[in-house]
Amino acid sequence: MKKPAVFMDRDGTVNEQMGYINHLDRFVLLPGAAKAIRLLNVAGYLAIIVSNQSGVARGYFPVDLVHRVHDKMNALIKKEGAVLDGIYFCPHYPDGKVPPYGMKCDCRKPGIGLIEKAVASFDMDMENSYVIGDRCSDIEMAHRAGLKGIMVKTGYGMGDLEYVFPKLPFQPFHVAEDLLDAVKWILG
Predict the structure, then answer these.
(1) Catalytic residue flag (residue 9)
(2) Domain count, the chain
(3) CA 83, 85, 31, 90 torsion-angle sign
(4) Is residue 153 within 8 Å of 178, Cβ to Cβ?
């Protein structure tokens, strides 16, 4: 049976936006994020992270750190009874200095490669799926994938809403205060 999915950006949506998470101690879960993911779990939605991590290609941190950050994220949300069904990230950047990550790819948001990887792994009801993020690239990815994009005001959200979106041909389907507010809106 197909399940709807909620594709969530990581930095600025699930955890505090601190620029590059170049050390494990810089990963701080946002209040209500684990509860939001638990609500998705209970409601039968697939909870999936989709994240650009170009710091790997830029040489700011090794790809191993991204995996350790995701282990920490999983452990923190598990303490609150929540589970992520999948984590997909893009380590690439066209001008990156670290082989093999310094390249143009299809998975870097706003491209839809991360969503395509998730779709290949799960039997998804895409018609009832959503993207939640704090950047215009998240909403553009949703638009390109034919999904409803929800913008959160955490992370870069407030700035993108005020300064970037007025110039863009696409807009968020909905604007929420944070991840928990977005999930409640989806389930409401």
Answers:
(1) yes
(2) 1
(3) positive
(4) yes
